[in-house]
């Protein structure tokens, strides 16, 4: 009897503990269009302070201009993806230039970091059968997003934060930009939202890491060109 009551009180203690444990959830923060001479370093500092890993989809010509920032992204444990060399629009009109532009960005990244990125995000998320098969042939994976912050359009920070809070879930991929014309709302949003989401149980990992997670839902896009 004594043993049973001891077991029961242990169990109630256990269930109390379990109900108070915050369930761990995974999300990927992604930053397009950089590196930027001002914002990239600020964002790297905020990510570091919040123990968050992210994925930077670099534009080749910006990486070429700011190689030390691309290097810093990688050295701090973030993923680097290809976002074309010149932020080329993925339209039929540009079909002849698309492969060349992506390869040119690969070369810039390779010359700085010594590897060719396996992740690719098309500018504006626009893709279609032609691009999908080209990217497959290049042995890359296309990455889209599940939450669009519209930070590039200087959306008010309160609106961005509401949008993230309403739409983030386990496996989410959030689209930000480190290259935004000043003033960018992105650093302030990150400083405010990362501690909040961490307290809700979110762990911020690279896209490569998130892809191994069962809840990964970032391989879809609502934009599609034929
Ligand atoms: Zn872009």
Identify the notable features of this structure and list them briefly.
single chain, about 230 residues, alpha/beta, TIM Barrel, six-stranded parallel beta sheet, two-stranded parallel ribbon, 8 strands, about 45% helix, binds zinc ion
Write down the CATH class: Alpha Beta
Structural class: alpha/beta
Rounded mean pLDDT score: 90
The name of the CATH architecture is Alpha-Beta Barrel
Low-pLDDT runs of 5+ residues are none
Radius of gyration: 20 Å
Description:
The chain is of the alpha/beta class. The chain has helices at 2-19, 39-49, 60-65, 67-75, 95-113, 129-137, 157-167, 186-199, 207-210, and strands at 25-32, 54-58, 79-82, 119-120, 141-142, 147-148, 172-177, 202-204. The strands form 2 sheets. Strands 1, 2, 3, 6, 7 and 8 form a 6-stranded parallel sheet that branches. A two-stranded parallel ribbon has the order 4-5. The protein starts with a helix and ends in a 16-residue tail after the last helix. It binds zinc ion.
Write the layout of secondary structure elements.
Blueprint: H1 2-19, E1 25-32, H2 39-49, E2 54-58, H3 60-65, H4 67-75, E3 79-82, H5 95-113, E4 119-120, H6 129-137, E5 141-142, E6 147-148, H7 157-167, E7 172-177, H8 186-199, E8 202-204, H9 207-210
Parallel strand pairs: 1-2, 1-7, 1-8, 2-3, 4-5, 6-7
Helix pairs in contact: 2-8, 7-8
Residues 32-33, 83, 87, 123 line the site of zinc ion (ZN).
